[in-house]
Design goal:
Elements lengths: L8 E5 L15 E5 L5 H11 L4 E4 L5 H4 L4 H7 L4 E6 L14 H7 L19 H26 L4 E5 H8 L1 H8 L19 E5 L5 E5 L3 H11 L3 H4 L8 H12 L4 H8 L6 E3 L3 H4 L3 H5 L3 E4 L2 E4 L29
Parallel strand pairs: 1-2, 3-4, 4-5
Antiparallel strand pairs: 6-7, 7-8, 9-10
Helix pairs in contact: 4-5, 5-6
Length: 332
C-alpha cells in the first residue's frame, strides 16, 4: 500500500537462489539482497536506514537487536526514524517469542470462535483478518500517524504493531454488542456470523450461491417483496426463535432459480442480494470493471491501488523491480 501511494519502498531480503519473479504483493518495491550475518552487509543496511523515513521489521522480539539493527541502534543515528515492528503476538506478553500465523492470532482474540455454523468447527476467513486487517492495515495507519506527529516533534518513534491488537480493534463493534447483550459467544444466534437468515449465503438451482445482507427493515421488506414472500409468513425479522423457519423459506425460494437468474432479478433493488463470484468471475463484474478495481499490470491481473483521491490521480501499479545494488541505492 505504501508503494502504491508513492513511497519509495526498498525490500531488504536474504540472497535468493531462485530467479522467479516476486509476487504482485511486492509491486513497486526496489529489492536489495543482504546477508545480515555478515558485518559488512549489516553496515551497508545501516547506511540505508540512516537515509530512511521508515523502517519495517518483522522479526521475533530481540532478533533485530542481536543483528545490530534494533531501534536503539538505528534511531541513535537517525532520530527522525519511524521504526515499525510488526509481529503476531507483540513485543511483550507470554507468547511474544512463540511462532504463529493468522489463524492463531484470530483464535485467541475470540474472532475465529465466532465464525461458522454452530454444529461444525470454526471456519478461517482466509488470512484476511489477522495478517492483513489486524496486521498490515493497522501498521500502515501507525506509520502514517507517526510521520504526521514527526512534523511537530521532529522525532521518530517505535511502533509495536501486533496482529492480536489489530484484530481486537477490528472487533470493536462485536465487543460493543456483547456489552449490551446483543452478541453471544455461542455460534448460531448472532447477526453477522451467518446465522441470521437475512445475512448469509444461499445455494441456488445450479449449485452456486447468492449473498443476502438485508439487515435494515426497509431492505428486509424489499427482500421479501422480490422473493414473493408475505411478511406474516416469516414473522418478526429479529425474532431468533423464528430464524429456522425463515431460513427454510428463503432456502426453498433461492433453490428455484440459478444464481445468475437471481442476480438479474435483484439487480437495481435495495434488497442487498448479490451473486457470490469466484475470483475469475470478479474480473468481468460490471461494477468492478467500471471502477477498474482489478487491472492487468506486469502481465498479471491484480487489485488496483486504493483508496482514490480527488486531486491526485489513481496511480498505475508499478511493476516489480529487479534486485539492485545495496551499495549504490539512495546514493546522490
Amino acid at each position: 500500500m505504501l508503494a502504491d501511494l508513492g513511497a519509495d519502498v526498498v525490500r531488504v531480503q536474504r540472497p535468493r537462489k531462485t530467479t522467479a519473479p516476486p509476487g504482485t504483493e511486492y509491486r513497486g518495491r526496489q529489492i536489495v539482497e543482504a546477508n545480515l550475518k555478515d558485518p559488512a552487509d549489516v553496515a551497508a543496511v545501516r547506511r540505508l536506514i540512516d537515509r530512511a523515513d521508515v523502517l519495517i521489521e518483522g522479526f521475533r522480539p530481540g532478533v533485530a537487536e542481536r543483528l545490530g539493527l534494533g531501534p536503539d541502534d538505528c534511531c541513535a543515528t537517525n532520530p527522525g526514524l519511524v521504526y515499525l515492528r510488526v509481529t503476531g503476538w507483540g513485543q511483550t506478553g507470554p507468547r511474544a517469542n512463540e511462532a504463529g500465523h493468522d489463524i492463531n492470532y484470530i483464535s485467541i482474540t475470540g474472532v475465529l470462535n465466532a465464525i461458522g455454523p454452530a454444529d461444525r468447527p470454526p471456519v478461517p476467513p482466509l488470512n484476511l483478518v489477522g495478517d492483513y486487517g489486524g496486521g498490515s492495515m493497522t501498521a500502515v495507519v501507525g506509520v502514517l500517524a507517526a510521520l504526521i506527529e514527526r512534523h511537530s516533534s521532529g522525532r521518530g518513534q517505535v511502533i509495536d504493531a501486533a496482529m492480536v491488537d489489530g484484530v481486537a480493534q477490528l472487533t470493536h463493534a462485536m465487543w460493543s454488542m456483547r456489552a449490551n447483550n446483543r452478541w453471544s459467544d455461542e455460534r448460531g444466534v448472532n447477526t453477522f456470523d451467518g446465522s441470521a437468515p437475512f445475512y448469509r449465503c444461499y445455494e441456488c438451482a445450479d449449485g452456486r450461491y447468492v449473498a443476502v445482507g438485508a439487515l435494515e427493515p426497509e431492505f428486509f421488506a424489499e427482500l421479501l417483496s422480490v422473493l414473493g414472500i408475505e411478511p406474516e409468513d416469516v414473522g418478526p425479522q429479529r425474532d431468533v426463535s423464528g430464524w429456522p423457519r425463515m431460513h427454510k423459506l428463503f432456502a426453498d425460494k433461492f433453490a428455484q432459480r440459478t444464481r445468475d437468474e437471481w442476480a438479474a432479478t435483484f439487480a437495481g433493488t435495495d434488497a442487498c442480494v448479490t451473486p457470490v463470484l469466484s475470483m475469475a468471475e470478479a474480473v468481468t463484474d460490471p461494477q468492478l470493471k467500471a471502477r477498474n478495481v482489478l487491472v492487468e499490470a506486469d502481465g498479471r491481473i491484480q487489485p488496483a491501488p486504493a483508496p482514490r483521491f480527488s486531486r491526485t490521480p489513481q496511480p498505475e501499479p508499478r511493476p516489480n523491480r529487479n534486485v539492485v545494488s545495496l551499495e549504490t541505492l539512495w546514493q546522490d
